[in-house]
Amino acid sequence: MALWTAGLYQRRFGTQMVLPFSLDHNIPEMKDFTNYEKMLFEYSETLGIYPNGHIMEFLRAKLKPNIVSISKVYSMNDGVSAAVAGVTVVRQRPRGKDGVVFITISDESGNLQLIVWPTVYDKFRLALSNSIVLVHGMISKRDRTTNLIVSHVEQISHYNMLNVSHDWY
Predict the structure, then answer these.
(1) Which residues pair with 110 in a beta bridge?
(2) For residues 67 and 54, what is the distance between their CA atoms, to the nearest angstrom?
(3) All residues at 6 or more sequence positions from 143 whose CB lies less than 8 Å from its CB, including other chains
(4) Distances (CA, A) of 123 to 2, 87, 115, 161
C-alpha cells in the first residue's frame, strides 16, 4: 500500500515506468510481493543487504544434496573434498602471494575463505566474478583455520543479479 501511495508500485523489477495516477481514485486491490521478490528488492534496489535472512535460504532447496552448507565444512576432516555455494563477500589478491586469490563467501550458516591458485583463477575467472558461486575443492585445516582450496567453480547463473562483494585488487 505504501509503495502504491508513493507512486513506486511495480509488479516487475526493471525498466517499467509508473504512469502518473490521481490518488483520489480508489486504490486497487494488489497482491503483495513474494518473499523472494522482497529479498531481491532489498538486496538490489534499496538496502544492499537482506535484513530478514540470507539469500542462500531461498537457493538451498534448489541445490543438489551433495552441496553442503558452510557450517558443515567446519566439521569435515582436512583433505576431504567438498562442494559449497555462497554469496561472494570479499575478493583479495595480496601482493607477494604468487597470484593467489582469497575469496570469502557466505551462506545462511556462516562464512568460509576460499583459496584460489592462479591457474584455477585464470580458468574460472568469469564464474568467480559472479555474486553467487558454487565451488568444489579440498578442505584445508591449518593453524586453527578452515579453508577450501578451490579446484572447480560453477556459477549459479539465474541468481547472479546481485552485486554485494568488496574487491580488493
Answers:
(1) 107
(2) 17
(3) none
(4) 47, 20, 14, 22
Number of Cβ within a 10 Å radius of residue 13: 13
Instruction: Give me the CATH code for the 64-168 domain, please.
Output: 2.40.50.140
Compute the Cα dihedral for 130, 131, 136, 141 and give only its sign. positive
- 102 φ, ψ to 5°? -105, 130
List CB contacts of 123: < 8 A, sequence separation 6 or more: none
Please name which of 159, 150, 151 lies closest in space to residue 131, comparing C-alpha atoms: 159
Dihedral, CA of residue 121, residue 123, residue 77 and residue 111, to nearest 10: 50
Q: How far apart are CA 153 and CA 169, in angstroms?
A: 20
Write down the domain spans for the chain: 2-46, 64-168
163 has a pLDDT exceeding 50: no
The answer to pTM > 0.85 is no
Task: State pLDDT tens for residues 71-96.
Answer: 999 999 999 999 999 988 888 888 76
Strands (E), the chain: 67-68, 81-92, 101-107, 110-116, 132-142, 145-155, 166-168
Cell digits for 97? 602471494
